[in-house]
Amino acid sequence: LNAYEAYDAIYDVVQSIPPGRVATYGQVAELAGLPRRARMVGRALRELPDESGVPWHRVVNSQGAISDRGECGESEREQRRLLRAEGVSFDRRGRVALVRFQWDP
DNA sequence: GCCATGACGGAGC
DNA sequence: TGCTCCGCCATGG
């Protein structure tokens, strides 16, 4: 897979995550045929324009936590808001219970 | 081409 | 639970 194909594969996988479920970066990489390349998933999502219909908010890290964006926490709150609107709940540390909400394709 | 930098993850302590 | 320490690999300087 070249860089473009890899990104497309990543976006395809993210598109297929159903509402109300989440997937981890490593899981998306694996399903996209890119094992051990979770960091690449992070980059792909980072470069996603806002108007793309890709549900980037349904991707969390392996701990069920929302990964740091460096930016003043703006998009982290947005991600929590979007997930809550789909029925995904958070524990008191702000993490998703993967046992309940992780997507199992 | 070298090097630092990550929307990461697993092992170890 | 919550650190560190590595391996990972595309990107930008």
Strands of the widest sheet, in order across it, are: 1-2
Order of helix and strand elements from N to C terminus: HEHHEHH
Cα(first) to Cα(last) distance is 22 Å
Number of helices: 5
Largest sheet descriptor: 2 strands, parallel
Mean pLDDT metric: 93
Topology:
Layout: H1 3-15, E1 23-24, H2 25-31, H3 38-46, E2 59-60, H4 74-85, H5 98-101
Parallel strand pairs: 1-2
The chain binds a DNA duplex (13 and 13 nucleotides) through residues 3, 6, 24-26, 29, 36-46, 56, 59-63, 66-70, 75-76, 79.
How does this structure look, described?
This protein is mainly alpha-helical. Helix content is 43%, strand content 4%. The protein is built from 5 helices and 2 strands. Helix 2 packs across helix 3. The protein starts with a helix and ends with a helix. It binds a DNA duplex (13 and 13 nucleotides) through residues 3, 6, 24-26, 29, 36-46, 56, 59-63, 66-70, 75-76, 79.
Give the tags.
single chain, 105 residues, mainly alpha, two-stranded parallel sheet, globular, DNA-binding
Question: What's this model, at a glance?
Answer:
The model has no long low-confidence stretch (mean pLDDT 93). The chain has helices spanning 3-15, 25-31, 38-46, 74-85, 98-101, and strands spanning 23-24, 59-60. The chain is mostly helical and 105 residues long.
